């Protein structure tokens, strides 16, 4: 069995957090101890006098996680922009070792860890690390989340190509927020040679900002075989 998966996106706004949460909840339903992680989050909000990541809150609540926020989301930045720029504007430096220590703590505690990246694979974390480096260091296979938008074929194929160039394992692609025609889904699978794990329809009753899950877990478990995500390829 895999020790976890790394959820990345073809672009921002494709619903990585929602899919990562659905994966975590689905695997927990198999009776496993599941941890969630958002290594780096920008765009933090103030709540009860402290900064929080809405993504991390969403991930934790769906599985009733009691893990400390400091290991679920070790790097938290307020400006809603790329982490390196957000850190510079905030007058702080990103300590990459905090991420490694937090991931080690979660992986030692749980059977399976779902890690959600920030943006796509080439988002810089500091002067020497990109999101792809996080997945590589953690030795986790990728789940690539794509959306139903103009340009998704190009963005998804570029993500796949870069992942392969970095020797990252790709578990498969999830098409999120599918609205109408699925012609582009077949094109992505054809040209990427990566399996489409499933498609999730667009849902108005799902919101990370309001921490609303709707029936996303039911949709996910109906459309996607979670055993494929858990099983380690040999």
UniProtKB/TrEMBL annotation:
<keyword id="KW-0547">Nucleotide-binding</keyword>
<dbReference type="GO" id="GO:0000287">
    <property type="term" value="F:magnesium ion binding"/>
</dbReference>
<dbReference type="InterPro" id="IPR004472">
    <property type="entry name" value="DTB_synth_BioD"/>
</dbReference>
<keyword id="KW-0479">Metal-binding</keyword>
<keyword id="KW-0436">Ligase</keyword>
<comment type="similarity">
    <text>Belongs to the dethiobiotin synthetase family.</text>
</comment>
<feature type="binding site">
    <location>
        <position position="17"/>
    </location>
    <ligand>
        <name>Mg(2+)</name>
    </ligand>
</feature>
<keyword id="KW-0460">Magnesium</keyword>
<dbReference type="GO" id="GO:0042803">
    <property type="term" value="F:protein homodimerization activity"/>
</dbReference>
<comment type="function">
    <text>Catalyzes a mechanistically unusual reaction, the ATP-dependent insertion of CO2 between the N7 and N8 nitrogen atoms of 7,8-diaminopelargonic acid (DAPA, also called 7,8-diammoniononanoate) to form a ureido ring.</text>
</comment>
<feature type="binding site">
    <location>
        <position position="116"/>
    </location>
    <ligand>
        <name>Mg(2+)</name>
    </ligand>
</feature>
<dbReference type="GO" id="GO:0005524">
    <property type="term" value="F:ATP binding"/>
</dbReference>
<protein>
    <recommendedName>
        <fullName>ATP-dependent dethiobiotin synthetase BioD</fullName>
        <ecNumber>6.3.3.3</ecNumber>
    </recommendedName>
</protein>
<feature type="binding site">
    <location>
        <begin position="176"/>
        <end position="177"/>
    </location>
    <ligand>
        <name>ATP</name>
    </ligand>
</feature>
<dbReference type="GO" id="GO:0005829">
    <property type="term" value="C:cytosol"/>
</dbReference>
<feature type="binding site">
    <location>
        <begin position="116"/>
        <end position="119"/>
    </location>
    <ligand>
        <name>ATP</name>
    </ligand>
</feature>
<keyword id="KW-0093">Biotin biosynthesis</keyword>
<feature type="binding site">
    <location>
        <position position="55"/>
    </location>
    <ligand>
        <name>Mg(2+)</name>
    </ligand>
</feature>
<feature type="binding site">
    <location>
        <position position="55"/>
    </location>
    <ligand>
        <name>ATP</name>
    </ligand>
</feature>
<feature type="binding site">
    <location>
        <begin position="13"/>
        <end position="18"/>
    </location>
    <ligand>
        <name>ATP</name>
    </ligand>
</feature>
<dbReference type="GO" id="GO:0004141">
    <property type="term" value="F:dethiobiotin synthase activity"/>
</dbReference>
<comment type="pathway">
    <text>Cofactor biosynthesis; biotin biosynthesis; biotin from 7,8-diaminononanoate: step 1/2.</text>
</comment>
<feature type="active site">
    <location>
        <position position="38"/>
    </location>
</feature>
<dbReference type="Pfam" id="PF13500">
    <property type="entry name" value="AAA_26"/>
</dbReference>
<comment type="subunit">
    <text>Homodimer.</text>
</comment>
<feature type="binding site">
    <location>
        <position position="42"/>
    </location>
    <ligand>
        <name>substrate</name>
    </ligand>
</feature>
<dbReference type="InterPro" id="IPR027417">
    <property type="entry name" value="P-loop_NTPase"/>
</dbReference>
<keyword id="KW-0067">ATP-binding</keyword>
<keyword id="KW-0963">Cytoplasm</keyword>
<dbReference type="GO" id="GO:0009102">
    <property type="term" value="P:biotin biosynthetic process"/>
</dbReference>
């Amino acid at each position: 069995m895999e020790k976890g998966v790394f959820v990345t996106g073809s672009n921002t706004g494709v619903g990585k957090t929602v899919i990562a949460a659905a994966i975590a909840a689905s695997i927990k339903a198999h009776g496993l101890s599941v941890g969630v992680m958002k290594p780096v989050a920008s765009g933090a909000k103030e709540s009860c006098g402290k900064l929080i990541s809405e993504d991390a809150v969403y991930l934790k609540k769906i599985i009733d996680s009691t893990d400390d926020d400091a290991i679920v989301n070790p790097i938290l930045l307020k400006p809603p922009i790329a982490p390196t720029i957000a850190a510079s504007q905030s007058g702080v430096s990103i300590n990459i070792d905090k991420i490694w220590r937090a991931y080690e703590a979660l992986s030692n505690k749980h059977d399976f860890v779902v890690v959600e990246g920030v943006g796509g694979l080439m988002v810089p974390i500091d002067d020497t690390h990109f999101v792809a480096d996080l997945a590589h260091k953690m030795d986790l296979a990728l789940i690539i989340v794509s959306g139903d938008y103009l340009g998704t074929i190009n963005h998804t194929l570029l993500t796949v190509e870069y992942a392969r160039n970095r020797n990252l394992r790709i578990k498969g692609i999830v098409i999120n927020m599918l609205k109408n025609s699925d012609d582009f889904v077949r094109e992505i699978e054809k040209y990427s040679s990566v399996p489409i794990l499933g498609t999730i329809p667009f849902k108005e009753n799902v919101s990370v900002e309001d921490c609303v899950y709707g029936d996303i877990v039911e949709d996910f478990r109906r459309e996607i075989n979670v055993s494929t995500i858990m099983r380690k390829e040999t």
